[in-house]
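#structure-requests
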Amino acid sequence: MKSLYVTKKQLFTYLLLFTLILTPFQPAETPTNVTASNDYTDLEQNIHHILSDDRLKGAISAVSVRDAKSGDVVFEKWGDMRLKTASNMKLLTAAAALHTLGPDHTFKTEILTDGEIVGDVLKGNLYLKGKGDPTLLKQDFDQMSTYLKSKNIRMIQGDIIADDTWYNAVRLSEDMIWNDESYYYGAQISALTASPNEDYDAGTVIVETSPTKPGQVAKISLIPETTYPTIINKTKTIESGTRSIRVTREHGTNNIVVEGTIPFNSTNTRSWVTLWEPTGYALDLFKKALVQAGIHVKPKQGGYGQTPPSAQVLYTRESMPLSELLVPFMKLSNNTIAETLVKEMGQAVHHEGSWEKGLEVLEDYVAARGLNTNTMRIRDGSGISHVTNIPANELSKLLVEVQKEEWYPTFLHSLPVAGASDRLEGGTLRSRMRGTAAERNVKAKTGTITGATSLSGYVTTKDGQDLVFSIILNNFMASNLRDIEDKIAVALAEYEDKE
């Protein structure tokens, strides 16, 4: 008969096997990839709880939090995973532009001639040469024309030439979705363009629809006034009911279609629509301004071309400096300014205003700041591309590194401020995180495209610890998950080290 005596070693082995049998199996597809310093255990648990939201099932949630001074990662989840950043891409564009172009950089627009003024006639061509300025408004063209009139010019014997050769002729970044390009966030990029107002959505026009009498078509007007596009009015003013105005532009044309109904006692509606080939838009505004100033212009007088090197500069208009332009760019998340800055960097460094050369400059800058460009795919400057992919850890690292730059206060000032009601302070965060510890504390860039949302920036904890963070959520089915981003940002603002 064998002995029933069991050694301590055997007993330990049996207990271990018994424990393994009873331990629930954890599926391999739900790894957490989370690290956190011991000091931030409570914060880790809080963020985990926020990310347990059912709307994130099947989605990817990446979070990276760093100590703002040391740059040490204090919490991360999927921090090294490449994800669609949406407009958080603008953080890289803004930083690279401030470094490459400088805060004092301005965009110039020139009026030149290859002829001479004889009496009140300009005998030669008049050139309108754009150098990328996205801030040109109707009043700027008026000012140019008034100046020419002050030089006693009443007639132009030659042609009026629009020159947009400062940048190349590629108008849209390579991943622009065709049905996005008629909306303001998908405007074409030209070195000669115009904006309808001080949001500086260059290459767009505001379509205003006003009710008339029941049964009649609505009144359509454009801001600024221009005949460059053709309006196709399919609207109807109704006695009562729901206002349902839809404004689109037919692809590849400047036919703007306005359709739907508007009650006769309704307020006006406004829609921003991009224009095909915005160079012609700027030329049209300039020609109208010349006529308004009393300078004779023939209906078909105008074309496109390159200014001769020997042409004489008559007038130069300078934009606001980049330090000021950064406010509408970042606060309002302006895609057109982002892509313009990319082309301007290419022109400044490589003498080629293209996406290819501009993005090369951008990547060189972030690589020099210690970011791993081998783990990024960058295809544009605005983040509208669904192919642009950057890990959250790289975004948080950038936010640490730019604090060392001389222009950092300008960069920080450009970020939206949570809960700040003023549009050019709070920007895209003006209605978020109000009444919380994050209000006026969190300064961060937002980002949204279909199936992707992001929030990256700066926050001070309850006990005075400065943190940087990056939150990227991808592949979700909900309409938006901004409340999840906000909860994490508030958790960071409320955090207090209990030791």
